[in-house]
């Protein structure tokens, strides 16, 4: 257990190593307690316009129940204040999840920008932090089987066939727990591992009961294990996913971070969001992007955060590693980081300084391990 953002977080469970835990998620299913993530709700007739003012995503393209990855942007620099998941429930109601390490910063950012927001023209917007909620992530190829068995074992009000719930979508399900106690689960298909899976929001009073019930069902046939943040980190790195404060931060624009895909073309044309001037210029001209986020394979010892990346020919520093570990799935060292534009193409040989020695490396495409999302 380690302290993190005011919580005591499980990094590793005693019955398995990080590599074993990682492989179990790839082969069966892991259950992560991610209740440290911050859940929000933004409501009111101005909710859509407000989110459009602080993010570059085109939320008009979302269907009810659909989610997207997005970023909160600094109004001047276009730097990433935090990354977040936005789920449209209806145009006046959005469910948002942000990072625990950025909780105070994000809440202040949202409140400051709401204070600047022109409600007279765009409509009122209300922000609520859902502080009395837990969040668990069930991830792996057997996640859907286990969760479906749990749903079918309950007197749920309105049965849910998970075959109809695709990646990037969420729904609600009422589960009677006895004595008049009904738990409304928010079930989102997605996660932070590259595997098929679900993130399930639960009220604090019922979080332990629901989690234990899912674990009990998954225990039949040894299909599930509680999984710590050590394996979560190696899984997300294999999936090529960023960790805020390491791979992206306030100094990084979404274009530099390889997140151009989450920026709506119509939003660039209107340029009415925080940081739009910087982001729109980079969006339209790669020559203005001085560095790029890329993946690496590294020979020898694994490269960790902060390791310098150098040009093989001149030993000139051209970038740095932001995340790195041995890949349990691939059996080789992988890393993520930034290099100067021009060195970013897959297959480019580089040197990586590890323990005072320049190791051979090569720029690699991400994800390192193919995603297994359940898509329509």
Automatic annotation (TrEMBL):
Location of this chain's protein in the cell: Mitochondrion
First-tier enzyme category under EC: transferase
Catalytic activity: N(6)-[(R)-S(8)-aminomethyldihydrolipoyl]-L-lysyl-[protein] + (6S)-5,6,7,8-tetrahydrofolate = N(6)-[(R)-dihydrolipoyl]-L-lysyl-[protein] + (6R)-5,10-methylene-5,6,7,8-tetrahydrofolate + NH4(+)
Domain of life of the native organism: Eukaryota
GO molecular-function term, one example from the UniProt record: aminomethyltransferase activity
Annotated ranges, domain Aminomethyltransferase C-terminal: 291-369
Keyword Signal: no
EC identifiers of the protein: 2.1.2.10
Keyword set, alphabetical order: Aminotransferase, Mitochondrion, Transferase, Transit peptide
InterPro entries to which the protein is assigned, alphabetical: GcvT, GcvT/YgfZ/DmdA, GcvT/YgfZ_C, GcvT_C, GCVT_N, TrmE/GcvT-like
Keyword Aminoacyl-tRNA synthetase applies: no
Positions of the GCVT N-terminal domain: 1-266
Subunit and interaction comment: The glycine cleavage system is composed of four proteins: P, T, L and H.
Entry's family note: Belongs to the GcvT family.
Task performed by this protein: The glycine cleavage system catalyzes the degradation of glycine.
Name used for this protein in its record: Aminomethyltransferase
Species, as recorded: Discina gigas
């Amino acid at each position: 257990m380690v302290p993190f953002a005011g919580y005591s977080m499980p990094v590793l469970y005693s019955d398995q190593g990080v590599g074993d835990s990682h492989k179990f998620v790839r082969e069966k299913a892991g259950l992560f307690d991610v209740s440290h993530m911050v859940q929000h709700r933004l409501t009111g007739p101005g909710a859509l316009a407000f989110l459009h003012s602080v993010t570059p995503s085109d939320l008009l393209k979302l269907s009810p129940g659909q989610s997207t990855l997005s970023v909160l942007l600094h109004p001047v620099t276009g730097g990433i204040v935090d990354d977040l998941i936005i789920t449209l429930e209806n145009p006046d109601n959005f469910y948002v999840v942000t990072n625990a390490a950025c909780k105070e910063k994000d809440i202040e950012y949202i409140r400051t920008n709401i204070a600047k927001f022109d409600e007279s023209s765009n409509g009122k917007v209300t922000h609520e932090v859902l502080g009395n909620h837990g969040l668990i992530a069930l991830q792996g190829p057997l996640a859907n089987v286990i969760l479906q068995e749990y749903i079918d074992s309950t007197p749920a009000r309105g049965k849910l066939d998970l075959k109809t719930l695709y990646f990037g979508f969420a729904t609600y399900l009422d589960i009677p727990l006895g004595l008049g106690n009904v738990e409304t689960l928010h079930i989102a298909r997605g996660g932070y591992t590259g595997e098929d899976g679900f993130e399930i929001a639960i009220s604090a009073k019922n979080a332990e009961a629901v989690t234990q019930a899912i674990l009990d069902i998954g225990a039949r046939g040894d299909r599930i294990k509680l999984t710590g943040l050590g394996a979560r980190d190696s899984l997300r790195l294999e999936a090529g996913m960023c960790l805020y404060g390491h791979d992206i931060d306030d100094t990084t624009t979404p274009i530099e971070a390889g997140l151009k895909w989450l920026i709506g073309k119509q939003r660039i044309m209107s340029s009415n969001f925080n940081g739009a001037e910087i982001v729109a210029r980079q969006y339209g001209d790669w020559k203005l992007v001085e560095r790029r986020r890329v993946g690496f394979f590294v020979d020898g010892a694994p490269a960790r955060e902060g390791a310098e990346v150098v040009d093989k020919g001149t030993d000139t520093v051209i970038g740095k590693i932001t995340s790195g570990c041995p890949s349990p799935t691939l059996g080789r060292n992988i890393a993520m980081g930034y290099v100067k534009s021009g060195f970013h193409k897959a297959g480019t040989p580089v040197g990586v300084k590890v323990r005072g020695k320049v190791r051979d490396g090569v720029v690699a495409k991400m994800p390192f391990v193919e995603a297994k999302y359940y898509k329509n």
